[in-house]
Write a structure and sequence with these properties.
alpha+beta; Chemotaxis protein chec; 6-stranded antiparallel beta sheet; two-stranded antiparallel sheet; globular
Length: 152
């Protein structure tokens, strides 16, 4: 599944007292006019929230619809990701209210880190991300095998 989006970069922000988060301008500028400032925010695989522009989310939905609901694993996967998906719009300043369930899931307190990861944007508790960065060890062989598949 190819994407028109190439979100990159890392940005530090604070969530405000109304649970509003600002999508950084360099990331916001990549949203297509077809998105109409609309996106989906949902649980990430890791302890973070994921943001997908609505046009990208529609591609993901199409992929998810290919999963058979006869498979218990598929049903659990779909349930765990789709029930937390929220269709939202950001305001003229790029702000939106992060749902409380995602704040709790991602352990968001005040300091957040926003990361562009190609077709999505991740929202992290800064302290948690720093701890994960320190503890994430990738097997050298796995890393080498992956690097052989990517032309950099």
């Amino acid at each position: 599944m190819s994407s028109q989006y190439t979100f990159t970069g890392q940005y530090s922000f604070n969530i405000d007292s109304k649970n509003r988060i600002n999508i950084p301008a360099p990331l916001r500028k990549q949203f297509s006019n077809k998105d109409k400032k609309t996106f989906v925010v949902t649980r990430g695989i890791d302890s973070c929230a994921w943001i997908y522009p609505i046009t990208e989310w529609k591609k993901i939905q199409s992929e998810l619809q290919q999963l058979s609901s006869l498979s218990k694993t598929n049903r659990i996967f779909l349930r765990n990701h789709l029930r937390h998906a929220n269709i939202l719009k950001y305001d003229s300043q790029g702000r939106f209210v992060l749902p409380q369930s995602l704040i709790e899931y991602a352990s968001i307190k005040k300091d957040i880190t926003i990361i562009g990861v190609l077709n999505k944007i991740e929202i992290w508790n800064t302290k948690l991300l720093n701890e994960i960065d320190k503890s994430d060890n990738v097997n050298d062989q796995s890393y080498d095998q992956l690097s052989e598949r990517v032309n950099i």
